[in-house]
Amino acid sequence: MNGKRKPAKSKMKKLVSITLFALLSLSSFAQGNTRKTDIDLKKSTLEWTGKKLGGEHYGQIQLSAGHLTFNKNKLTGGTFEM
Questions:
Q1: What does the alpha-carbon distance between residue 41 and residue 61 come to, in Å, rounded to a whole number?
Q2: Is position 69 within any domain?
Q3: CB contact set of 62 (below 8 Å; sequence gap of 6+)
Q4: pLDDT score, position 32
Q5: What is the pLDDT of residues 31-40, one digit of tens each?
Q6: Residue 74 belongs to a domain
Q7: Least C-beta-crowded within 10 Å: which of 12, 39, 43, 61?
Q8: In 5-48, where does DSSP find H-type helix?
């Protein structure tokens, strides 16, 4: 190895960005019977795990806003704010 690693924060931002992009992309294909449902902020958290050679770290992030989009009772997208 060359000793250079990306910071964990950068990897987490990239993962969250890719996930949100995928959800939003799916929502753009939704047609017909679509509905938006707000998430329950008191019951909803984002749980994360960071792994390294020497162990793992866990955590939770409380969401500040968000919704899920359904088309014919199938999840087609959504947004989450932290």
A1: 11
A2: yes
A3: 41, 45, 82
A4: 64
A5: 568 889 998 8
A6: yes
A7: 43
A8: 8-28
C-alpha–C-alpha distance, residues 4 and 7, integer Å: 9
How many domains is the chain partitioned into structurally?
A: 1
Confidence category of residue 7, pLDDT binned at 50, 70, 90: low
- 55 lies in some domain: yes
Helix/strand/coil for 16 = helix
Strand order of the β-sheet with 65-71 is 34-38, 65-71, 74-81
Distances from the Cα of 63 to the Cαs of 6, 12, 82, in angstroms? 25, 16, 5
End-to-end C-alpha distance for the chain, whole angstroms: 34
Per-residue pLDDT reduced to its tens digit, 9-59: 777 777 787 787 777 766 555 456 888 999 888 888 888 999 999 999 999
Does the residue 31 lie in any domain?
yes
